[in-house]
Amino acid sequence: MTHFDVVVIGSGIVGLGHALAASDRGLSVVVVDRAAAIGGASVRNFGHLCFTPQSGPAREFALRSRPLWLRLQVDAGVWLRESGTVVLARHDDELAVLQELAAQRGAESVFGIGEPDVVLLDATEVSERLPLAEGTALGGAYLPWDLQVNPRQAGAGLAAYLAGQGVEFRYRTAVTAVRTGRVATTRGSIDAGTVIVAVNHDIDQLYPEIAERDGIVRCGLDMLRVDAGLRTPLPAPILTGWSLLRYGAFSSLPAAVTLGERLRREYPLLAELDLNQMYTQLPDGSLIVGDTHYRGASVSPFQNENAFEQLLQLTGELFGVPRPRVLERWQGVYASGRADFLIDQPEPGVYLVAATTGIGMTTGLGLAEHVVSCVYDSRSLTLKGTV
Questions:
Q1: What is the pLDDT of residues 193-213, one digit of tens each?
Q2: Which of 178, 278, 330, 339 has its CA 20 to 30 A from that of 347?
Q3: Is 195 helix (H, G, I), strand (E, B) or coil?
Q4: Residue 282, burial from CB neighbour count under 10 angstroms (0-12, 13-18, 19+)
């Protein structure tokens, strides 16, 4: 075929989300990607679908994403567990952030009937849930509505499902130009009713003026997969005090200011790494450990071993185990901008869409559903521009 209702450029989770939303509406879809397989930010992450810690538009997209992930567990065979998240507080100011969010969210949940979004835990309850070093927990919180997927399987599972639904995939095919109604590629032109450009940080390759206008650069990060020898498996992903500075629902709270000041004062080397100390456990029992952050128009491929040493030391101290055995190391790269998302329409029928703060797995499916519903369900494209 040389004509499709929708051409999606990019096979990361945001691109696949648009293919899913379009296919659900009975539209013909082709996904074009210059890579040979899914291998970008959509596989180099924790697999943590952290819906609860989002705020603003990210919360809206998270709310839309959650039922879609649950559906894909059944329809696409995506490995998923309804694990929730455990947030560990080791200091009074960390606990204060969790208490503020619990008070703000209240007893009712927007995700469903049952537990509230934030359930506060005391030190004993945290220690009963997590295999921590003795005396580590002051308290914490349980976020019951968060989910976990295996990032190495989720995207591939979704792509296989879409192919079974008639979506065409053209890998190893680079896009050279995009115009209203037509996409030029290294394997010929494709006529399109709508074009979705979902190429993450490579937006500057096709639309450099928009990337510069909105301050979109690349964010590199260091991550590990380790055998930590934990005495019991993790029942859920773990967030720490450093994580409370990264996600909007936490970082916007007054108590987060005090927390940030203390962490930067007491741990300047970790603050310099722009640390998010968090953990998820894969089905094989290994831990994903991370991560650090550094930004620029390009990201050096040379990773500083100090970052890995710090992550390993923190992991050993947290769980009271010897130095974890490293199984894999990798560098993630994602789009980073002044706002959380890019939604733009540079010309009729062409839409640029990206999560620009590293929460694509959490919000990408809902973001895509929002855009496609606006284009095809006779709604105005709200949130146009960076949001």
A1: 999 999 999 999 999 999 999
A2: 339
A3: strand
A4: middle
